[in-house]
Amino acid sequence: AQTVTQSQPEMSVQEAETVTLSCTYDTSESDYYLFWYKQPPSRQMILVIRQEAYKQQNATENRFSVNFQKAAKSFSLKISDSQLGDAAMYFCAYRSSRGGSNYKLTFGKGTLLTVNP
Amino acid sequence: KAGVTQTPRYLIKTRGQQVTLSCSPISGHRSVSWYQQTPGQGLQFLFEYFSETQRNKGNFPGRFSGRQFSNSRSEMNVSTLELGDSALYLCASSLGLAGKYEQYFGPGTRLTVT
After folding, report:
1. Which helix (H) or strand (E) holds A6?
2. What is the pLDDT of residue A100?
3. Which residues on B lie below 8 Å from A33 (Cβ)?
4. Interface contact B88-A43, CB threshold 8 A
5. Measured between alpha carbons, how far apart are the two ends of chain A, in Å?
6. Which of A78, B24, B59, B64 is most buried, taking the most CB atoms under 10 A from its CB?
7. What is the count of residue pairs from A and B with beta carbons less than 8 Å apart?
8. Which residues contact B62 (CB under 8 A, 6 or more apart)?
9. Amino acid A42: pLDDT
10. Which of A34-48, B42-56, B96-110 has the lowest mean pLDDT?
11. How far apart are CA A20 and CA A32, in angstroms?
12. How far apart are CA B45 and CA B90, in angstroms?
C-alpha cells in the first residue's frame, strides 16, 4: 500500500518570503500522480498543484512550484512571495494511475502553515 | 459552473442513531468519492462511486455505506453511530475514475456524535 509522509506538522513564514513544505511517499509503482491540496480555515479543500510521475519537469502554478525527485520519492512544495491568504493546512496526496482499488487519494497528515505579517 | 455541494453542513446526532449525508458533484462529473477527516487519523478514504456502482472501498466497517444516483448525486449513510464517527466528511467529484482526473472537494459535513 502507498503511504505519504509529511514530516513537518507546522511551519511558519514571514509575509513575502519563501517557504518549502516537505513530502515523501512510498510506492512500488512507476506511474502515478502527486498533488498538493490546501485547506484554509473555511475547510474547503483546494487543489494547489499536481505532478505526473512520468514528467520530469517540475510543475509550477504562479507562486507555487514543486521539487519532484522520483528516485528519492520526494515531492516538496515551494511557496514564493508568501501571502497572508496562503495560511492553511497543506496536504500532500498520492494517486495511482492504475485501476481497481488504487484510484483513491492517499493523503499525508498535513502541514499547518502560518504566515506572519 | 457550480462547485461540489454537500448537505447538511452541520449535524449533531446521538450514539446509536443513523445519519445520511448528501453530495452533489460538479455538473458533468460522474465520479464521487467520500473521505473522513479527523484530527487523529487525518484524511481517510471511505469509498468511490462511478456510474451508480461502488468502484473502490476503504477500510471502514459495514456501518458505513453509500450509493450514487443516475444524476451522479451521492449519499453516504452511517448506521449505529459511535462517538468515534465524529468527523468532517468530505465529498469529492471528478470527471472519471482514472488517476489523471483531478478531484474537486466540497465544503464538508461536520458530524458530531454525542
Report:
1. none
2. 57
3. 99-100
4. yes
5. 41
6. B24
7. 59
8. none
9. 72
10. B96-110
11. 22
12. 10
Surface-to-core class of residue B59, CB atoms within 10 Å of its CB (0-12 exposed, 13-18 middle, 19+ buried): exposed
Cell of A4: 505519504
Question: How long, in residues, is chain A?
Answer: 117
| φ/ψ bin of B78: left (φ > 0), alpha (ψ from -120 to 50), beta (otherwise) | beta
Tell me which chain B residues have a C-beta less than 8 angstroms from the C-beta of A32: 99
Which residue type is seen at A38? K
The pLDDT-based confidence of B45 (bands split at 50, 70, 90) is: very high
Q: What is the DSSP letter of A31?
A: S
pLDDT, tens digit, 9 for 90 and up, residues A52-74? 999 889 999 999 999 999 999 99
Distance CA B89, CA B64 (A): 12
Q: Give the DSSP per-residue string, B23-59.
A: EEPPTT--EEEEEEEETTTEEEEEEEEETTEEEEE-S
| Local mean pLDDT, 10-residue blocks, chain A (117 residues) | 92 98 94 93 88 91 96 97 96 82 82 97
What's the length of chain B? Answer: 114
Amino acid in the structure at residue B34: W
Closest chain A residue to the Cα of B33, Cα to Cα: A104
- Does B56 contact A44 at a Cβ distance shorter than 8 Å? no
Q: Which of B89, B98, B104 is nearest to B35 (CA)?
A: B89
- Of A16-20, B15-19, B49-53, the poorest mean pLDDT is in B49-53
* Count of helices and strands (H, E) across chain A: 0, 12
